[in-house]
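Incident log, support desk, overnight shift.

02:14 A customer reports that sequence design results differ from what the structure should imply. Their input is reproduced verbatim below. On-call engineer (initials T.W.) acknowledged and began investigating.
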């Protein structure tokens, strides 16, 4: 590989990285390079490259050159706080650019007034793969001038060498989500049991294994080869223990989930203060489901002011020691309370993560070193935490960025302990809906759930700790609503429709009344449906529709039965055997399936063969890292890749008594050949076991390929069941796990409905029944359309079964058919939803 010369992306003055007034860059936490003090107002590409990430706040961009060098350019310092103001992005992630192409335009005057510094670091974030062999320094430079030259190191992105006094061992990381907060804390916990100095070395950086924050900031991903390096008497034991921990997967080993997500690019918009939209409706991403009506309570975390200069090293060190001890005491008390009350798992996990961060020796050491230089304890603590916060945010990894809130939370807790300030408690009355830029886990844990009926955050992600907490507390929540939410005044009336993904600000009286009616109706409807849940389910005009429940455990099966499910249309077998290092054998599987079948009391049980891959990991089945896991080894492809596992599973299903209660269903079918291959295994297993009874074998329709060839597949499948979750993802080419797309990925998109219609028509040719076991079966608005398209079985969540049954009884199938035909010609999911809602409103009016 030849050398690569980077050209200057900015007009300005070149400065060495060491002079950057920010430890993250000066200490090369993100890599080596240089900085430019800009005099121009456009950032250009330094070479031909692909845009890897554009930071949400539009102030930073990472590119990958064709030789693999990764270049981060960060306009100004602490410019993330400007939230995009002053920047205009000209490119999108994934775009190819040529050297000199404009990337980000910026308002130099605005930045000069509002940013901490204009100095712009340009760093190579994989410096172990590339060495800087020449760099310009201390001179004025024009865009396009040669800036630095990179030379590949040995052609291999090998982990950094182990120092002479150290022993080292390489491991490949099997953890699906890489080493995020929880595994980092476990590694640190293990490392601290040894006297040895232990470090983890990733491609381009090294961190003490005893520091969970340092380990997290390495951004180690699934499939990365890392080195454990240690020195000291018990170095070998430390290395062995950590290697075992990592290689064991910590319960998260296995195939890759969605590729480590880049920080989502903000759409290219004019910068400026966010405003409420005219209709007062803010859209966000569902974090916890439900509907709530309440009053706004803004939680703006007031800035805690800290002095830079200390009052003497000894007293500042003592102050920090006391503050850390005070926060630790509080966290431990809270954790003990949770344990005593048998507490919530999510709350315990968060308290545990805060304690692990608090005990992080690197954080404390960094802060103490700053105090030794004459800084105040508060300033030092903020700086130490801030360095990691920026490093994690700058890595462009959504999962790691979401862990930043724990660090920010901890920063505040210690600063408050230092200043003696308590968080100014917002006045909360019953029916409060919290609005915050970002809600910190400790803030949510501190609220009284009897007063708070929902929350909305400007930022945040659906997998953040607050989202997990909210779901566990049963509080409807939306995240990523945008900064306009913070312009809502305290006390403003709000309707939070988390399922619908929107917050209605200051609704007029009719909207408010409608929401109140909706809430009351929801409660009443639930109670009524439950009362009639065990009655048979036929439409008003006498068509039998089976309403089943989806199950993933014995408890689900019991709940489904109690809620009147007439069987199970989907047993997600992969959920029964998640957290384990070895595959379940035939006996174990047979026992589990039998228990579930018995809980269903002889009613049909559709057992889906293993559906791992994509976003579902099975640690015992490590699938090689994939560029596009959702399009890779998934479902039946995995079963046919490891046919002995399929055979074992089928044999276990065949052992369930009574024979025939279990039907078999195959996920992710894309062609008839796959079904034939599974049928061959089934026939072989039946022969071996002497089973002569007919065992129904059906397929899931989850790929567009299966939907459009349903007529071919139905010729040999006993039934079809539509997995609307995946079918929607594949028809719309929208990742079902991507929060940025969450609001748009809707099974009621006419394109998805046309696929379902085609599948039903194909099945009808061969007189096969079609069911739906994806999320749409639990969506009451979707039900009349699905029935109208020809679906005769719905497998909903256990909780939704009573309401689905009650609804089906109210429907007239001919009317559903007319509705279905009409909606196929609409142009958007919203239009379909509107049409279905008014149909439902009419159906309930005409109800006797
Ligand atoms: C689906 O894709 O709709 C489905 C039911 O399967 P899963 O959600 O388990 O992928
Ligand atoms: Mg699926």
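02:41 Re-run completed on a clean worker. Output:
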């Amino acid at each position: 590989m030849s050398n690569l010369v980077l050209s200057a992306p900015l007009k300005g003055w070149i400065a060495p990285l060491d002079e950057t007034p920010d430890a993250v860059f000066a200490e090369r936490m993100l890599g080596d390079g240089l900085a430019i003090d800009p005099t121009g107002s456009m950032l250009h590409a330094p070479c031909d490259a692909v845009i890897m990430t554009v930071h949400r706040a539009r102030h930073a961009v990472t590119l990958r050159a064709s030789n693999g060098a990764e270049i981060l350019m960060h306009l100004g310092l602490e410019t993330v706080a400007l939230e995009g103001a002053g920047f205009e992005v000209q490119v999108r992630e994934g775009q190819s650019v040529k050297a000199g192409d404009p990337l980000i335009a910026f308002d130099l005057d605005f930045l000069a007034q509002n940013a901490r510094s204009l100095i712009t670091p340009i760093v190579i974030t994989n410096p172990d793969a590339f060495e800087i062999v020449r760099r310009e320094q201390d001179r004025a430079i024009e865009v396009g001038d040669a800036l630095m030259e990179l030379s590949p190191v040995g052609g291999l992105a090998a982990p950094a060498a182990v120092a002479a006094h150290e022993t080292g061992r390489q491991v490949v990381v099997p953890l699906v989500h890489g080493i995020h907060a929880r595994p980092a804390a476990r590694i640190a916990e293990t490392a601290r049991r040894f006297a040895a100095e232990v470090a983890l070395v990733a491609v381009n950086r090294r961190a003490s294994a005893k520091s969970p924050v340092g380990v997290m900031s390495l951004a180690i991903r699934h499939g990365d080869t890392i080195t454990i390096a240690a020195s000291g008497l018990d170095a070998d034991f430390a290395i062995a223990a950590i290697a075992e921990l990592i290689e064991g997967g910590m319960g998260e080993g296995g195939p890759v989930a969605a590729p480590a997500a880049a920080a989502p690019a903000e759409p290219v918009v004019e910068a400026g203060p966010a405003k409420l939209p005219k209709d007062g409706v803010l859209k966000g991403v569902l974090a916890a489901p439900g509907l709530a009506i309440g009053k706004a309570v803004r939680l703006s975390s007031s800035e805690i002011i800290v002095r830079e200069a200390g009052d003497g090293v000894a007293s500042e060190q003592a102050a920090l020691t006391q503050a850390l001890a005070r926060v630790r005491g509080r966290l431990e008390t809270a954790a003990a309370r949770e344990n005593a009350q048998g507490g919530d798992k999510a709350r315990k996990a968060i308290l545990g993560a805060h304690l692990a961060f608090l005990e992080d020796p690197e954080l404390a050491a960094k802060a103490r070193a700053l105090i030794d230089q004459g800084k105040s304890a508060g300033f030092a603590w903020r700086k130490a935490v801030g360095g990691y916060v920026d490093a994690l945010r700058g890595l462009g990894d959504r999962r790691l960025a979401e862990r930043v809130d724990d660090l920010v939370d901890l920063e505040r807790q210690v600063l408050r302990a230092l200043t003696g300030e308590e968080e100014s408690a917002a006045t909360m009355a019953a029916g409060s809906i919290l609005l915050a830029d970002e809600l910190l886990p400790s803030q949510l844990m501190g609220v009284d759930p009897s007063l708070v009926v929902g929350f909305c955050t400007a930022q945040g992600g659906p997998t953040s700790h607050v989202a997990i907490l909210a779901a566990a507390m049963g509080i409807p929540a939306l995240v990523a609503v945008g900064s306009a939410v913070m312009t809502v005044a305290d006390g403003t009336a709000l309707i939070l429709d988390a399922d619908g993904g929107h917050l209605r600000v200051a609704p007029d009286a009719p909207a408010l009344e409608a929401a109140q009616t909706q809430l009351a109706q929801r409660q009443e409807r639930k109670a009524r449906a439950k009362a009639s849940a065990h009655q048979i389910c036929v439409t008003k005009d006498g068509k039998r529709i089976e309403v089943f429940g989806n199950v993933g455990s014995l408890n689900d099966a019991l709940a489904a039965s109690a809620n009147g499910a007439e069987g199970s249309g989907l047993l997600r077998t992969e959920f029964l055997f998640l957290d384990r290092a070895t595959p379940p054998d035939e006996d174990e599987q047979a026992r589990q399936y039998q228990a579930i079948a018995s809980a269903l009391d002889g009613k049909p049980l559709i057992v889906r063969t293993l559906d791992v891959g994509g976003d579902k990991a099975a640690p015992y089945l490590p699938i090689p890292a994939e560029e596009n896991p959702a399009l890779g080894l998934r479902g039946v492809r995995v079963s046919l890749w490891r046919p002995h596992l399929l055979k074992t599973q089928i044999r276990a299903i065949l052992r369930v008594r009574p024979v025939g209660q279990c039907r078999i269903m195959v996920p992710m079918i894309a062609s008839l050949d796959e079904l034939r291959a599974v049928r061959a295994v089934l026939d072989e297993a039946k022969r071996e076991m002497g089973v002569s009874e007919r065992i129904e074998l059906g397929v899931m329709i989850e790929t567009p390929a299966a939907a459009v060839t349903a007529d071919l597949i139905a010729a040999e499948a006993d039934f079809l069941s539509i997995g609307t979750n995946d079918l929607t993802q594949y028809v719309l080419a929208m990742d079902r796990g991507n929060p940025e797309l969450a609001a748009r990925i809707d099974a009621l998109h006419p394109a998805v409905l046309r696929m379902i219609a085609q599948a039903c028509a194909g099945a009808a040719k061969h007189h096969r029944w079609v069911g739906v076991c994806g999320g749409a079966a639990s969506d009451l608005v979707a039900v009349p359309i699905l029935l109208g398209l020809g679906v005769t079985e719905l497998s909903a969540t256990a909780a939704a079964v009573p309401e689905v049954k009650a609804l089906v009884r109210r429907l007239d199938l001919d009317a559903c058919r007319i509705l279905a035909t009409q909606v196929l010609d609409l142009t958007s999911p919203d239009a379909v939803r509107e049409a279905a809602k008014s149909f439902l409103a009419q159906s309930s009016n005409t109800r006797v």
